[in-house]
Amino acid sequence: VAVATRHRLQSNSNVLVAWLAGTDSLTGLVNQGIGIAVGLTRIFSDGPFCSLEKASTIALIGRFFLSLGNLALISIDRYISIKHPLRYTNIVTKQRIKTGLCLAWVFGLLVIIQELTMAVVDSGTDLYFLYMKVIHSILSIPALVAIVVISYTYCYIFSESRRHKKRLQTEQLPEEEAKRLKKESKAANTLTLILATLVITYIPGIVIMFFTGYSEDNLELRILSVMWSWVATFRLLGCFCNPIIFFWRVKKLRQAILEI
Fold this sequence. Notes:
- With about 260 residues, the chain is mainly α.
- The chain is about 85% helix and about 0% strand.
- The protein contains 9 helices and no strands.
- The chain is elongated.
C-alpha cells in the first residue's frame, strides 16, 4: 500500500519488495488460516480432514515458489545495481520488472494447478507415487537454481560491499559517491538478513522434497506429516521475518508506513 500510494517510493527495487510483501500477505491470509483449520480439526475431530490437509499443502508449495521467485528477482536487481551502476536504468526497466514478476507468478500458479491435479487423482496407485516422485524431483530443480542464483549474486554483493567499506575508510571520496557507496552497503546488509532467513526457512523444505523424490522407500504417513509440519512452520516464519526486516532497514518505507 505504501509503494502503491507514494510516487517517491515507486522505484524498481521497492516494486519488487512490494510484490514480496503481497506474497507474504497472501501467506498470512490463506496459508495461516488453512493451517489453523487443520490444527483445530486434528484436536477436536478424528477426521476425515484429507481435503484440508491437501489444501494446506497446495497453498504452502504455491507460496514457496512465489516467494522464492520474488527473492531471486530482488537479488538480481541488487546485483545489477552494484555491478552496472551507470547502465542500471537501461538494463532494469519497468517492462522487464513486470516480465520477471509475471514469469515468477505464472510458474507459481502452474505449480498450484499441478498440485490441484494431484489432489483429485487416486493416491492409492503405484502410478501416483511414481508421478509424485518425478514431479517433486522436477520442482526441486528450479528451486535449487533460484537459490544458486541468489547465493551467487549475494557473494558478489558481499565482496563489493566489503571493498566499498575499505574505500570509505581509506580514500577521500566525493560526497555524492560516498553516499552512493553507503547506500549500496546498507542494501547489501539488508540482503544478508533476507538470505539468512531464506537459508533457515527454505532449505528444510527443499531437502525433504529431494528426499521424497529420490528415496526408494516411502516414509510412513505419520512421519511425513510431522516433517511437513515443521517445514510449514519454518516457511511461515520466513514470511513473518521478511516484513520486519524491510520495515527495520528501509527508512523511506518505514516512514511511509507510519504515515499511513
